[in-house]
Here is the input.
Amino acid sequence: MNGLKHLVPGGWLSVYAVLYVAFLYVPVLFLPVFSVNTAATPKFPLSGFTWKWYEGLPHTPELLNAAWNSLIVGLLASVLSTVFGILAARAITRYRFPGRRPINGLIMAPLVLPEIIVAISMLLVILQLGLSLSLFTVVLGHVLVCIPYSMTVLTSGFEGFDRSLEEASADLGESAFGTFRRVTLPMVTPTIISSLLVSFTISLDEFIIAFFLTGTEATLPIYIWGQLRFAAKLPGVLALGTLLLVASFVLLSIAEVLRRRAARRTQSEGGLYA
Here is the structure.
């Protein structure tokens, strides 16, 4: 009986985990299924198999412009959020100063605040500053959202870093900036790349912030939202959504592999990066 008592909670937990994952991801799996259906209406049974919805994507100028805008916004947002994340993660993991924990909580606040509240607040601030809505304002909003994710990745990299290597560099006469550039950054490079990939993926998929802060230049999520108003455009939206889903999965998988690789080498090799 005692053994059964220990097994039952674990069994229910496994069932709950399976149901939870199925509830989240099974609907997403229908996206690629319907994207290759010959019929424009997503329903079972499928009418047939076709690639024509994918073949039509490169011949849509509005889609190409939205993709280019998303690429620009994603690259800028990922680089800026990673740079700010490096500075913040370095300060929080290396130094003890007044207000350290509240500042860290403030940086992480966008993770728990409703995005629509963040978006409306940023919109009001931008309008009060007299700025015009454009891709630049979208980048500002995405940086705000991406920094907490960047911080989460980078903090784990800096926390596992062997400080004795920096001390050895300082003992050899290297300056603080030189030590950071020649020793610290090379060793946390996998974590930095992981942060760039995660931030880019978050920016690529972000809709609410872009919806409120974009001007006349739409990003991919805004383009998809606009196409959903037309039933005839739905198959193309499903094809585009499938490509975004695959791209997000690949980027996040690479980021996670790099993060684990950095953590494993930090623990097993004392922070050495090879």
Summary: The mean pLDDT is 78. The CA atoms of residues 155 and 163 lie 14 Å apart.
